[in-house]
Amino acid sequence: MSLFSWFNSADQVDTALVVVAIIGAIIEVVVAVAAVINVHKELEAARKEKLEKYIEIFACVAAFFFLAEAILGCRSSTLLSKEIEKFKGDNLVLQTNVASLNGAVIELAHQYDLSTNALAEANMRILSASNAAAMNSPRNLPLKTLEGDCFIGIGKNDSAPFIRALTKPVLLTFLKTDDNIETGIGILGHIEYVQTNYPSGEVVLSIGFNGERGKSPGAWSGLSFNDLHVVKLDLSSVSESRFVIKGGFARIEVDSLFNSEFGFPVQTNRIGSDWGIVGFKRSEWP
How far apart, in whole angstroms, are the C-alpha atoms of residue 268 and residue 123? Predict the structure, then answer.
């Protein structure tokens, strides 16, 4: 069986076919040359007869190679057909696999869309919960009480009216922004202490204040601790003229829970319908 195993290999059959065709062609050439010599050349009878026998023998051998070539050609064609059928089958399997892969990709894309939508929905729920938690945080609830103290430095050239300002009333207004007075809380305070810095001639005012919703003017129900960003201090009860402050700060406590500090930069106070000096929130705790 192993002797003819090559007969099932297309490559080996094709190689044998080429070898047989070449050998057959060589034999045909030899027979043709011998036939030409036999016809056109004068030979002795014995040699002529011997040449004709060789021609007949080689003609038979050539016929055998023709037959082998035909058999090998037929076998090569059969094997080629089988390989073509095999390729068709493999191609069909490949197409099936590609179709399955396309289906899997489509399903994966669908699952990705579902997961993306689920993630977006989860993020929206988290955001909603965070917003709800932030809205319900005590920092965002309407104010109930606000108290604290304030320290303001007055320059030497403007200090005269303030040296005798002890117990004078002052108004502090806490706002969302510098321009939105309608959403402010007004709290009445008093100058509790006046300290004179004798070498420089400057005066430091210590002001205490305390306010409660329902007892102090302003939009208490509309403001929370997180809304307070600006404070205006009205010292017109002490001086209605322009004066320069050297800076200062105010510390407040809201609902006995939260604290913040406002800083007053160096500035000239406002007068008329816009009385006051302005400070801005710069820190908060806890």
Answer: 49
Q: Where are the domains of the chain?
A: 1-136, 140-285
- 167: alpha, beta or left, given left = phi > 0 and alpha = psi -120 to 50? left
DSSP letters, 251-285, are EEEETTTEEEEEEE-SEEPB-GGG-BEEEEEEEEE
Q: 3-class secondary structure for 42-97? A: CCCHHHHHHHHHHHHHHHHHHHHHHHHHHHHHHHHHHHHHHHHHHHHHHHHHHHHH
d(CA 146, CA 224): 11
- Give the bridge partners for 279, in sequence order: 231
- The tokens of 56 are what? 């007949």
pLDDT (tens digit per residue) in 82-119: 778 888 888 888 888 888 888 888 888 888 888 888 78
**Using CB atoms within 10 A of its CB, is residue 28 exposed (0-12), middle (13-18) or buried (19+)?**
middle
CATH 2.60.60 correct for 140-285: yes
